[in-house]
Amino acid sequence: QQPVQSPQAVILREGEDAVINCSSSKALYSVHWYRQKHGEAPVFLMILLKGGEQKGHDKISASFNEKKQQSSLYLTASQLSYSGTYFCGTYQGKGAGGTSYGKLTFGQGTILTVHP
Amino acid sequence: EAGVVQSPRYKIIEKKQPVAFWCNPISGHNTLYWYLQNLGQGPELLIRYENEEAVDDSQLPKDRFSAERLKGVDSTLKIQPAELGDSAVYLCASSLVRYNEQFFGPGTRLTVL
């Protein structure tokens, strides 16, 4: 089942912050985040593998709330280069040993536009 | 390290014609994926290969779509015959193992007239 992302679009000025949410009606076992610029391939940002995990690099970070079945991506002090469409992808299965199974299902995307 | 290579980048055909897309994954990546991406949507999995074996093709319309991954490296996705609704971007991705990050190719933009 496709995860739901919110908001669908957000417009920022350079230096402003944004939060993108990804939620599912089914239990999530891992969440991937990707960014895709217009006409280009999606680029991997990070994976969160277990509830409570938080990750980040540079000024982009993410959290994974297993109980709420959602993940959030945080963009701090946005830069022009952050513009693009952000997708979360979720694995909704659980195999032996607690690993994810099934297929990676992507949300519909959140369009982020950063203006000077 | 070279990324995922796809060709052609663009293809325009008339309906009912056949079309094929080629993908060369990152060297050493055992898992290969073909996705379809419609405008304004996220990628949707068509088929996943583990080495040369197609292990998840439940979303592949088998009446017109086919895929192969010879020797567990390059892969080809074919549509025959193409329909107007097949117009989309076809993305190939690879990962070292199944649940790791996926590296996407630039995609093939297909337009069916």
Protein model, in words:
The complex is a heterodimer of chains A (116) and B (113). Chain A is mostly beta strands and 116 residues long. Chain A is built from no helices and eleven strands. In chain A, the strands form two sheets. In chain A, strands 2, 4, 5, 9, 10 and 11 form a six-stranded mixed beta sheet that branches. A five-stranded antiparallel beta sheet of chain A has the order 1-3-8-7-6, with no helix packed on it. In chain A, strand 6 (54-57) and strand 7 (60-65) form a beta hairpin. Chain B is an all-beta fold and 113 residues long. Chain B is 0% helix and 49% strand. Chain B contains no helices and eleven strands. Chain B starts with a strand and ends with a strand.
List keywords for this structure.
heterodimer; A: 116 residues; mainly beta; six-stranded mixed β-sheet; five-stranded antiparallel β-sheet; B: 113 residues; seven-stranded mixed β-sheet; four-stranded antiparallel β-sheet; 0% helix; 49% strand; globular
Largest sheet of chain B: 7 strands, mixed
What's the N-to-C terminus distance of chain B?
A: 37 Å
Number of strands of chain A: 11
Q: Helix/strand-derived class of chain A? A: mainly beta
Rounded to the nearest angstrom, the radius of gyration of chain A is 14 Å
Rg over C-alpha atoms of chain B, rounded to the nearest angstrom? 13 Å
Largest interface: A-B, 22 and 19 residues
Beta content of chain B comes to: over 45%
- Whole-number mean pLDDT of chain B: 94
Summarize the structure.
Chain A has 116 residues and is mostly beta strands. Helices cover 0% and strands 51% of the residues of chain A.
What is the element layout, followed by pairings?
The complex is a heterodimer of chains A (116) and B (113).
Chain A: E1 4-6, E2 9-13, E3 18-23, E4 30-36, E5 43-48, E6 54-57, E7 60-65, E8 70-75, E9 84-91, E10 105-106, E11 110-115
Parallel strand pairs in A: 2-11
Antiparallel strand pairs in A: 1-3, 3-8, 4-5, 4-9, 6-7, 7-8, 9-10, 9-11
Chain B: E1 5-7, E2 10-13, E3 19-24, E4 31-37, E5 44-50, E6 53-56, E7 65-68, E8 75-79, E9 88-95, E10 103-104, E11 108-112
Parallel strand pairs in B: 2-11
Antiparallel strand pairs in B: 1-3, 3-8, 4-5, 4-9, 5-6, 7-8, 9-10, 9-11
